[in-house]
């Protein structure tokens, strides 16, 4: 694991600077019309709780941001603007925001509670890579969410496994339902050195685009880069760049070519290497124009590499006379099974 901040729960040691933690006993208390029920998780800048919306009597995820962010005018302005834009996007793969506001000097967001795991936890539980079919299903859902955001001129800026929530899907064909969360809520925009002015760690640098590092203006193509880093990790079990310290990691994002995916995980087709290299290009102009374009090419490359898939198609096409009914599709192999087991 490179990028020291990628470890889940790395915010524990920062509890003193967060709005509330296990220690402060917020559970059972009321915050802006929500009764806090349990802590779900915490990152570098916020604590997320499961809470009860007392007005509508429903469960929500309530995110309380660290108080020093509320004191930062740039962040406040951005928070207000981007919460409004994110709430305006109605998309099946974007976590719906119910309310964003401020109470007693703390910025908060109430959003849909997504039962399940975030992709960071899923990868850690899995002990590395996901099956290519699962990785592809997750990637396409995140890609569609990002492209929808880009169509609203909203750049996510912090696409990473911790911001991708994986819930149980609707049926056998859609075994996982993936939500993207935390639009524009990155502290990296305030300081990319890894620390804020109060010396708090920002988070992982495993997925940050070269133009974000160099402080150039960003557009949706920085999300293409970050998504490619995430997808690389879901397929290879490790992100594209791993270095001993953050400076070396930032350098690698800017100047080092990414390693071929097929070298990181044996058995992946070499055709996927070129797709990944394009998505991870150092300059935005050289990348895919949209996230869905990237993921479609990647999935085609991955599927094209499955032995036997082409052979079946040829056999069906050359049979003369009355075509026989197509054979039943075989049971999916172990690696293509859904990450959620049917009950
Ligand atoms: N809407 C939600 N429903 C259920 N769980 C959520 C929801 N939003 C966030 N979580 C959980 O809370 C955890 C903490 O979220 P948070 O955004 O504070 O941290 P992070 O994304 O891991 O790190 P960072 O602070 O760097 O963004 C997430 O990883 C996720 O597991
Ligand atoms: Mg987050």
TrEMBL record:
Family matches, as Pfam families: Pkinase
Protein name listed in UniProt: non-specific serine/threonine protein kinase
InterPro entries membership: Kinase-like_dom_sf, Prot_kinase_dom, Protein_kinase_ATP_BS, Ser/Thr_kinase_AS
Record's compositionally biased regions (Pro residues): 323-335
Protein keywords: ATP-binding, Kinase, Nucleotide-binding, Serine/threonine-protein kinase, Transferase
Annotated spans, Disordered: 1-21, 307-343
GO MF annotation terms: ATP binding; protein serine/threonine kinase activity
Location of the Protein kinase domain: 34-302
Domain of life per record: Bacteria
Positions contributing to ATP binding: 63
EC number(s) reported in the record: 2.7.11.1
């Amino acid at each position: 694991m490179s990028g020291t901040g990628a470890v889940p729960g790395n915010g524990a040691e920062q509890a003193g600077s967060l709005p509330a933690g296990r220690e402060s006993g917020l559970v059972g208390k009321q915050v802006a019309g929500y009764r806090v029920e349990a802590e779900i998780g915490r990152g570098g800048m916020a604590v997320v709780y499961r809470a009860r919306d007392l007005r509508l009597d429903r469960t929500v995820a309530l995110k309380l941001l660290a108080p020093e962010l509320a004191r930062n005018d740039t962040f406040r302005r951005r928070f207000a603007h981007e919460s409004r834009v994110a709430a305006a996007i109605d998309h099946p793969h974007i976590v719906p925001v119910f309310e964003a506001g401020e109470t007693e000097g703390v910025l908060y967001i109430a959003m849909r509670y997504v039962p399940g795991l975030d992709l960071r936890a899923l990868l850690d539980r899995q002990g590395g890579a996901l099956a290519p079919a699962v990785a592809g299903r997750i990637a396409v859902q995140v890609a569609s969410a990002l492209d929808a955001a880009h169509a609203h001129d909203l750049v996510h800026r912090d696409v990473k496994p911790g911001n991708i929530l994986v819930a149980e899907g609707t049926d056998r064909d859609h075994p996982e339902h993936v939500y993207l969360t935390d639009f524009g809520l990155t502290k990296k925009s305030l300081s990319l050195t890894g620390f804020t002015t109060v010396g708090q760690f920002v988070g992982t640098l495993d997925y940050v685009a070269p133009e974000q590092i160099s402080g150039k203006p960003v557009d949706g193509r920085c999300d293409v880069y970050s998504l490619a880093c995430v997808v690389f990790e879901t397929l290879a079990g490790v992100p594209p760049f791993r270095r001993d310290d953050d400076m070396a990691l930032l350098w690698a994002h800017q100047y080092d070519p990414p390693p071929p995916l097929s070298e990181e995980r044996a058995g992946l087709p070499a055709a996927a290497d070129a797709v990944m290299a394009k998505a991870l290009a150092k300059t935005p102009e050289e990348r895919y124009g949209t996230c869905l374009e990237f993921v479609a090419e990647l999935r085609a490359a991955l599927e094209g590499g499955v032995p036997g898939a082409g052979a079946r198609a040829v056999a069906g096409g050359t049979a003369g006379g009355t075509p026989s009914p197509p054979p039943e599709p075989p049971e999916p192999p172990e690696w293509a099974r859904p990450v959620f087991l049917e009950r």
